Amino acid sequence: MALNAVDGMLAREFNQKSRLGGYLNEITDVVSDAALYLPFAFVAPFDGVQISSIIWLAALSELCGILGKV
Q1: Cβ neighbours for 41, distance < 8 A, ≥ 6 positions apart
Q2: pLDDT band at 66 (very low <50, low <70, confident <90, very high)
Q3: Interacting residues of 50 by C-beta distance below 8 A, sequence separation 6+
Q4: C-alpha span between 67 and 15 (Å, rounded)
Q5: Cα 42 to the chain's mean position, in Å?
Q6: Cα–Cα distance between 23 and 51 in angstroms, integer?
Q7: Is 45 helix (H, G, I), strand (E, B) or coil?
Q8: pTM of the model as a whole
Q9: Rounded to whole angstroms, how far apart are CA atoms 66 and 54?
Q10: What beta strand segments (E) does the chain contain?
Q11: 30, 62 Cβ separation under 8 angstroms
Q12: pLDDT tens-digit profile of 38-50?
């Protein structure tokens, strides 16, 4: 999570931001969030449906950030 913030700050600081980089940043945020939440599907009080719903909602909220830029 901290590295996600750092890469954006460095891109702005050194004027290396691009439109593609912004999209790739949001997409990799979705992938990393899913990778963080997925192991909870194997923990006793949770099940696959609950975790899948959380991952889907997290992805939806991240992709709304992309739509804001479009």
Answers
A1: 47, 48, 50, 51, 52
A2: confident
A3: 41
A4: 23
A5: 21
A6: 25
A7: coil
A8: 0.73
A9: 19
A10: none
A11: yes
A12: 999 999 898 889 9
